[in-house]
Fold this sequence. Notes:
By secondary structure, the protein is mainly alpha-helical. It contains 5 helices and no strands. The chain has helices at 2-15, 18-33, 41-60, 72-93, 101-137.
Amino acid sequence: MQSIVKKFLHRGLIFGGFGPIVAGIIYFILSFKIDNFSLTGKEMFIAIISTYMLAFIHAGASIFNQIEDWPIMKSLLYHFTSLYLVYFICYLINSWIAFSVTAILIFTAAFIVIYFIIWIIVVISIKTTERKMNLKLD
């Protein structure tokens, strides 16, 4: 278990910095598209910290899919739950979604659909690669 935590932290630290970079790029683009676009120091600080945490957890959560002792449903549940919670908190803190039942339901539905579409694409990709490798071994 200790090695899993180390790997989670290591991956998170390596890729965590990409979150604020993406936030900076988005805000830079918005500054060209929205007249008089500006952020307060507080808004920028929250965006940097929350997107760092989002990227950190997102990168670290990939370890859940590599724990061989866990059944696929357990790893999927841990991965999904950790990503949902960090995205949900990040979106609320940054006011990217409103704190209303309708907005939260729409966010949740979109997250579930997108998560499982990506998951299915990854599974198909892995199966295709596996099939090609097995053909080469024969």
